[in-house]
Amino acid sequence: MAVFESKHPLVKHKVSLLRDVNISVKSFRELTKEVAVLLTVEATQQFDVANVDMTCWSGDIQAPMLSKQQPTLVPILRAGLGMLDGALTILPCAKISVVGLRRDEKTLDPETYYENIINDIEDRTAIIIDPMLATGGTAVATIDLLKQSGCKHIIALFLVAAPEGIEVLQKSHPDVDLFVGVIDQQLNENGYILPGLGDAGDKIFGTL
Ligand SMILES: O=P(O)(O)OC[C@H]1O[C@H](OP(=O)(O)OP(=O)(O)O)[C@H](O)[C@@H]1O
Ligand SMILES: O=c1cc[nH]c(=O)[nH]1
Ligand SMILES: [Mg+2]
Description:
By secondary structure, this protein is α/β, with parallel strands linked by helices. It has helices at residues 9-18, 25-43, 84-90, 137-148, 163-172, 200-205; strands at 3-5, 49-56, 59-66, 72-77, 95-96, 98-103, 110-116, 125-129, 132-133, 153-161, 177-183, 186-187, 193-194. Helix 5 links the parallel strand 10 and strand 11.
């Protein structure tokens, strides 16, 4: 598994702004979307292109186009919805597969409460989007669901990731590449990322 931590100065800057304890819901939503745009650009840099015949204003040409089907975006409810608009800005034709998982506050185990994965997922790259990778339990369960549905190629985007979660993912799904805004220090005793962003879902949905 490859882990790509963004080197883009705007990603660093915007994730730092997201950490402000006094951030408004509006700013948190806007910045989450903006970082999602930047991470989607980085994650799609490795996509293959192949020349196709086309007629241009100046005549017939061969022009490079994406050689595979458009990917499917996989927002993990709730917080992943905050990144969906940003990812769609770069991939406006992507199909969307939605999964809903929440962590049990005490055990930190993920519980799946919704699953709506596209039919032809075996032909497409799945791009998981979720602001936070903490213990890794939610991401592992999501990848399990996608693989059970026939998905063969999966990448995952996170604004902030804890080293503990990266290690768990690495062990469970070594074939999945990660694109991360910032790798943070550690988890606290309640499974929250330090320094982190706090509860990203609550900040995006205004349920603090
Ligand atoms: O790596 P883990 O320890 O599994 O934690 C990460 C998960 O926790 C958060 O979701 P949460 O369960 O708070 O649900 P929400 O998006 O509805 O707020 C976050 O958006 C991830 O999905
Ligand atoms: O720090 C964390 C950990 C899990 N989920 C969040 O939203 N934040
Ligand atoms: Mg939450």
